[in-house]
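Let us work through a complete example step by step.
Step 1: write down the sequence.
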Amino acid sequence: MIKTESAYREAVEKLRQDKSFIESEKIRFKKLGLDEEHIEIAIQPYISFHEQLKEEVDYYERIKRGEFETVINLRSIGKTLIAYRIYSGLSQSDLAEKLGVSPSQVSRDERNEYCGATIERIQQVMEAMNMISITKINPTEIVSA
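Step 2: predict the structure and record it as tokens.
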């Protein structure tokens, strides 16, 4: 998963290079006398990697536009936190500053998609990104019907 703007730019450049490389390999294999079927078999691993990277770039572009999935279970919360950070335009360093931790800590958390993070840590990250607001309820204000 692409998690930073610099990784996104590198991925876009890699896609451009891969496309050119795949075309040159097709030509090279054709000159070696391979038929179309064997050429497709030979370049299939390159195409698979290219398509996987393209999906990651597409996903990053969607989350930058705010098109990401709603959290439906706690297993997906890490991916959603990363997506929201990207959508919000925060770098990992920006988030680290808001949390009062090192950028390497945020990088580790995101690399692991917040797996193993405490509920308190998830809460802190959500608050730092203004995903939620905390409203304190005064028990005396609760009126039963």
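Step 3: interpret the result. Residues 134-145 have pLDDT under 50 and may be disordered.
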